[in-house]
Amino acid sequence: MARRSATREAKKLKDKWKAKEWYSVIAPMMFNRAKIGETLADEPEKLLGRTIEVTLADLIGDYKYMHIKLRFKIVDHSTSEAYTRFIGHDLTSDFIRRQTRRKRTKMEGVFDTVSKDGYRIRIKPMAISDKRIQSSVQYQIRKRMDELVTKMGEEHTFSEIISLILTSDRTKSLGNVIQKECKIIYPLKRVDVRRLEVLEMPSGDDTSEVLSADLVPLPAEPGDEPEPEPEAPEKEEKAEDPKEKPSEEVKEEKAEDPKEKPSEGAGEQVK
Fold it and tell me: What is residue 172's predicted lDDT score, i.e. its pLDDT?
């Protein structure tokens, strides 16, 4: 009897795995709807609420960003795809350890801000100096960080803030802006956003971020920008080339050659 019960349970387990289907996990619009991975589920409703972690390098294809971990949450699904929204990011612990060394000062802050479109987010920047600095100077730097983060939330939408934090162009990133503004107080070696969390979303459906077409995608590398196509106007100019017109006029002149007319008249006289 025990053997029969064990075989029945094994058959049930096999049937459960057969009933499950693979779903492709899709990133939001701001990440160009890239495929994050795949997940299994026997019912589509069980996909909702699952969180998935992936590195930025896997989405962009650039291994310089292996230290940035992105977190997504599944909020909608279709017959074969699961759609997500962005809920935060982290820097890997080994990257933070490489930046913090002896005779350096690491300054961290925790600042909350509300974006232009109503997202309440928490940003945790991390600044590192070459030398040890006094606590009073650290206080001034943190205060300036708080002002810049608040100002960024008032002037930009949620997708624009994510783009400024994770941008491939470091000159436009939030860390570079903080580094330039704090240079008056004390020159900093490096500034990064260690962590970002979405605390509260605006009232509405969770799928609004997934289905919206107004989100700003991540900026591509300078070499990846498509080159302009000047071929179309050149072809139009060639079609309207004035050199071709004389050839048509010559043909018309040949057709209306006056030498042909006397021949017609001569034929009539012979008749």
Answer: 75
